[in-house]
Write a structure and sequence with these properties.
About 40% of the residues lie in helices and about 20% in strands. By secondary structure, the chain is of the alpha/beta class. The chain has an eight-stranded parallel barrel, surrounded by six helices. Strands 5-6 form a two-stranded antiparallel sheet.
Length: about 350
């Protein structure tokens, strides 16, 4: 198996995302490009760029970064509803063409401030039904000409995207832990992304998703799996845990919260519930950040020396994880530190 290593670039207007210390130039193209070039220089194949109303437009940021980098692959997060399928397929095909096939896509179906950008949708079942239709239609537009489609949520007539994508088009990453989300992933995604759950939870979900790909008649290449998590790496195990505990203490001081947060999404709630099993799970999965405002990839951290964290990530690879989307703050410093510390170690994982 080949492994993919991606980092994370914050896409916010205000500085301080997850404790990042960058202030001068924050939110400018030069700052984002500096982070992307740092990723290139330290072994990362690319980086996730997040989405959400009230942030800069992710696809515009990804396009600008791609134009000023050489190998960097933007994993651009996008939302069905914010985009119409044909419009998105055309925009993505254009960037794929201009960048020499470097574009990756993360499809996000989680709730957002829909009314702010003129979207409206119903319950969870409808939201994921729309996402499934969106992903299927986009693939057709990338690989077929004169596409006519009339679905429940979208339609096109005699639609051909120009320019054409390279090969089958950008790979589609997808997240979600609900039953509805997993059925979409099983049939439509290239890569299912997991938050930082313990090994037993990831193994259970991989088994279930593989079963769904068979029972639902998946007609794409086999589904692949990825891990999106914070990695706090230091020279020694003791230094790492000292810094991790200090960061959580500071999070607690700023938030004033000592109780577990509640999350509306199934996947986020699974992470928050882990704290009931202990502050440290498996060998070095730290659950305490979730009690003090950590959300998403910041809810659980892998903490330790480079050998500790690399060994933990190898155990995920043994389960079938082949895509790693990692991060820590301050972003620029940790892009270099974590890339230098982990990527060569993980690249030595026996293949097959």
């Amino acid at each position: 198996m080949s492994l993919t290593f991606l980092w994370y670039i914050p896409n916010t207007v205000e500085p301080g995302h997850r404790g990042d210390d960058a202030v001068a130039g924050y939110g400018t193209l030069d700052h984002s490009v500096e982070l992307a070039r740092t990723a290139e220089e330290h072994g990362w194949q690319g980086a996730l760029i997040g989405t959400g109303w009230g942030r800069p437009d992710t696809f515009t940021v990804a396009t600008a970064i791609a134009a000023r980098t050489t190998t960097f692959r933007p994993l651009a997060a996008i939302r069905p509803g914010y985009w119409q399928p044909a419009h998105f397929a055309s925009s993505a095909a254009t960037l794929d063409h201009l960048s020499g096939g470097r574009l990756l896509i993360n499809i996000v179906s989680g709730q957002d401030n829909l009314a702010a950008y003129g979207d409206a949708e119903g319950d969870q079942a409808q939201r994921y039904a729309r996402t499934k239709e969106f992903m299927r239609l986009v693939r057709r537009l990338w690989t077929e000409e004169r596409v006519t489609f009339a679905g429940e949520h979208f339609h096109v007539t005699e639609s051909t995207v120009v320019p054409r994508v390279l090969g089958a088009g950008p790979r589609l990453y997808f997240g979600g832990a609900s039953a509805a989300a997993e059925r979409v992933a099983a049939t439509e995604a290239d890569v299912q992304l997991f938050w930082g759950e313990p090994l037993d939870g990831i193994a259970e979900r991989i088994d279930r998703l593989r079963g769904l790909t068979a029972s639902l008649g998946r007609d794409l290449a086999p589904l692949e799996f990825g891990l999106r998590i914070t990695t706090l790496v230091r020279d020694t195990t003791e230094e790492a845990w000292r810094d991790a505990e200090a960061k959580v203490e500071e999070m607690a001081r700023r938030s004033g919260r000592n109780d577990r947060l509640r999350g509306p999404a199934v996947g986020q709630q699974r992470l928050l519930d882990l704290a009931a099993r202990g502050d440290v799970l498996d060998t070095c999965l730290y659950t305490a950040p979730g009690r003090h405002g950590g959300g998403g990839a910041g809810t659980t951290w892998l903490v330790g020396s480079a050998d500790d964290v690399a060994a933990a990530l190898r155990r995920y690879a043994d389960l079938g994880i082949t895509h790693f989307v990692l991060s820590d703050t301050p972003y620029k410093r940790e892009t270099a530190r974590v890339g230098d510390a982990l990527i060569d170690r993980l690249s030595l994982v026996p293949k097959g």
